[in-house]
Write a structure and sequence with these properties.
- There is one protein chain.
- It is built from ten helices and 19 strands.
- Strands 10-7-5-11-12-16-15 form a seven-stranded mixed beta sheet, with helices on both faces.
- The N and C termini lie far apart (62 Å).
């Protein structure tokens, strides 16, 4: 198995190369819009099948010779054309093209339905609130489908080796699926997250963020905003920083990502470093930076000598609100909540943009996300 779309700067080139194969497939009579194909027995035509998702295509000798062996499968993107195997040309039924971006609690519907190489779920080593380690818990947030395996496994293993327990969260699934077929049990749905239990929140990357538009998902954004409002340490790697950018957390912040145009357009100051820390936000640019990324997070948690000093204090934890996700009865009060302005840099804190958390509910340790000024430097903006 070969990892594709490794969340690096060459993703665009790989996606572009896949267009070539898609055009060849269309020329060969393979139309992904239909649920079945019938390959003719024209002289010289051979049929080739993806060993991962079962996608099959017929190619003439000329088309076959023209295919770049490093072009990814246009359906599952989980292996290269080089690894396609020749199969008898025959009618192929039951093909499910395209990606369903709706979340589903019973299956990973964004993945091709006829995957031919099933992979058993990796047991989660997360824990509930009753089994938190002495150092605290770290929440790792995954796309429901196509998370990047290295960006989950290396940081998780390192966190645990340093004495932290890890809890995995996602949306709408009990099992999350990786880009190369790995799957892992999810401990919590986003709606069940109580941020006061965690020392840090880490957004894992992967192509699922792009395909399922996770960065635009209001629930993922709400979690990021609420974590920032509670002064939590926040980490994001690969395409994970897109979530932070769309949540408005990277405005004026130094950051990196696997593809940086998006975060730059949202106001981030792009860095070429593999791992970047700016205040309570740590970003990494892809799987090769996974260990360094994890080490930076642990170092940030322990720099003051105790991870308990990160984010909400023990006294304030009981007052910290649970992350509000989706419509709630607090909608009206959120609309009426006052905005506050930083007297140092002019930043405006709007509860509507931070998961409905009123300024008065923020912990005393909270700081301005733009200039780092303390909460005491803010003044209420009275309605005129």
């Amino acid at each position: 198995m070969v990892y594709l779309f490794q969340c690096s700067a060459n993703q665009s080139a790989m996606k572009t190369s896949s267009i070539t194969l898609i055009l060849l497939l269309l020329l060969a009579g393979a139309f992904p819009a239909f649920a079945q194909y019938s390959f003719g027995a024209a002289e010289g035509v051979t049929c080739w099948q993806c060993p991962v998702c079962g996608y099959t295509v017929s190619l003439t000798p000329y088309e076959l010779a023209s295919v770049n062996p490093y072009t990814p499968c246009p359906v599952c993107y989980s292996t290269y054309a080089f690894y396609f195997v020749q199969v008898p040309c025959q009618t192929a039924t039951g093909y499910d093209a395209g990606y369903n971006t709706e979340y589903n609690t019973s299956n990973n519907s964004a993945m091709p339905s006829n995957r031919s190489v099933p992979v058993a779920p990796v047991p989660s080593t997360g824990s509930d609130s009753s089994s938190a380690s002495a150092k605290g818990k770290i929440l790792m947030v995954l796309p429901p489908q196509q998370y990047q395996e290295t960006e989950l496994n290396e940081p998780r293993n390192y966190f645990q080796s340093q004495g932290y327990s890890v809890v995995l969260a996602s949306k709408g699934v009990k099992t999350a699926t990786g880009m190369s077929g790995e799957s892992v049990s999810v401990d919590l749905d986003l709606k069940a997250v109580t941020l006061s239990e965690y020392s840090a929140v880490v957004f894992v990357g992967g192509e699922g963020i792009y395909y399922q538009k996770i960065n635009e998902d209001p629930d993922f954004q709400a979690l990021a905003k609420a974590a920032a409002a509670q002064n939590k340490l926040i980490g994001a790697i690969c395409l994970g920083p897109w979530v932070l950018a769309d949540a408005g957390l990277l405005q004026g912040k130094r950051a990196t990502a696997s593809e940086t145009d998006h975060i730059k357009a949202k106001g981030a100051i792009v860095s070429n470093e593999s791992v970047v820390r700016d205040g309570n936000i740590i970003t990494g640019n892809g799987p090769s930076a996974s260990l360094e990324f994890a080490q930076a997070i642990v170092a940030a948690l322990e720099e003051s000598g105790s991870s308990a000093e990160q984010g909400v204090s023990g006294k304030e934890a009981g007052l910290a609100p649970t992350v509000p996700l989706g419509p709630s009865s607090q909608a009206a009060s959120t609309q009426n909540a006052s905005k506050w302005k930083c007297t140092v840099c002019g930043y405006i804190y709007d509860p509507a943009e931070h998961g409905g958390v009123a300024f008065e509910q923020l912990p005393s340790t909270w700081k301005c996300p733009t200039c780092g000024a303390s909460k005491s430097k803010f003044v209420k903006i009275y309605r005129g």
